[in-house]
Amino acid sequence: MAHPLDNLRNQIDSVDQQLVDLLAQRLALVAQVGEVKSEHGLPIYAPDREAAMLAKRRDEATKKGVPPDLIEDILRRTMRESYASENDTGFKTVHPQLRNVVVIGGGGQLGKLFVNMLRLSGYQVDVLEKDDWQRADDLLGNAGLVLVAVPIEITESTIARLGNLPSDCILADITSTKSGPVKAMLDVHSGPVVGLHPMFGPDISSFAKQVIAYCDGRDAQQYQWLITQMQIWGARLYRTSAQAHDEAMTLIQALRHFTSFAYGVHLESVNADVKQLLELSSPIYRLELAMVGRLFAQDPDLYADIIMSNPDNLKMIQSYHHSLGEGVKLLEAGDKDAFVASFNRVSEWFGDYAQMFMKESKALLQQAHDSRHYQDD
After folding, report:
1. By its UniProt entry, which PROSITE patterns does this protein fall under (predicted)?
2. pTM above 0.70, yes or no
3. pLDDT exceeds cutoff 60 at 377
4. Rounded to whole angstroms, how far apart are CA atoms 305 and 299?
């Protein structure tokens, strides 16, 4: 006997199949867009165009009784795939006269990403690894850009070996600390120097909307083409000083990584049942736990180097430890009034950002909830 829902489910399946066909059609159009952008040197990410398109689709959805957040979620996910597919068409070469590019450490994960993007942009890219230094003079002697992409602990010693670069060669690095590497590059090279820090890992599918911090070293006009090239890839370039960058990274990277490390160490020390925690968790705790687990799925040497690369990181972590201790004292005293007063003070300090973060996190939490999959016991 047919189930009462069979007919409706069949109709839904038909609509879903149409959605698949429409998405395939959209991706085919995106491929054509990518070719045009590549030809004319247009960035793959156009924020004004994206914002206007989403606003229009939200308005149309509202008029048809479709939740506007639903259509925005679908389109944003679709656009993320579209940005990734535009990589296949390559990018315009901003500086076609550039001599060869040498990526030192180009065999590493992040180095490979830049090697690929530079090759997609039409540049001749050579990779120099630690066992290739017998070829260094040949590769570096004619270089137009040298990009240092080695681990933090050997970045400055690697830079120190680059004293014979052509005077007009651009020397850059992609290390997560900037003061030391930028100074080292300025000391060893008389030509253009710029410090870069990609604020993402090597597992991204596209540079669209990704942030790359850059710190001027010398002769900014000589490396401006590189900034433009990365903008064409879709990245957002954020200019800052090396000192300001490192101060921000103390909070953004070192402190956050260390607190995740400490939380993971504590979970292990009490032998927490992770499976049970996940079963009982709300979306926000699941995300928090996922971020801690993500840390321990990666290279421990990398995170040790990030946390220990700057003496100021330890000072900040010690300051956080003191703040944590003050919070424990409130609990020991059972002083709810003091807790609430402290909470309100911080809430006031966040100001409008608190509500902005509430809105952003709501969308993230809903996505985390949607991705949960339960199996019958």
Report:
1. CHORISMATE_MUT_2, PDH_ADH
2. yes
3. no
4. 10
